[in-house]
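Continuing the batch. This is chain 6 of the set; chains 1 through 5 are on the previous pages. Same settings as before, nothing changed between runs. Recording input and output for traceability.
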Amino acid sequence: MPGKGAGLKIADVSRKRVSSRNSIARGMIKLRPETIRMVRVGTVPKGDVLTVAKVSAVLAVKRTSEIIPGCHSIPIDGIEVDYEMEDDKVIVTCEVKTESKTGVEMEAITGTCVALLTIWDMVKELEKDEKGQYPTTSIGDIRVLKKVKV
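Output for chain 6:
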């Protein structure tokens, strides 16, 4: 019966060969058009939103195994974080590369999610309504676009 004493089982990758792996994850944050304009021109009171979000994503990728118990600690050989801005949203894409026995999709998803959360944190004062709520702000469409093992 699931949940009864099942605990956590870490996948045994000891017999796997090291191989080149990469993964790309993407997600989006919906924001008010006025907030997007402020991000574009760099006038958000908390600072340079996209640079801070990129740094946060890199830190998160490197610490994925510390925050997700089932993830193995693996060497990270490359991280790229990119943004696309539309009138009412920012789309974050995070690509992670490694030479390892296991994949990096969780690292790519974690980097994407933390970048999105950082963006929200940096613009939240601009997104709140008169009641202190976030009626239009949302994070979503988070998914792995690509997972490669060579």
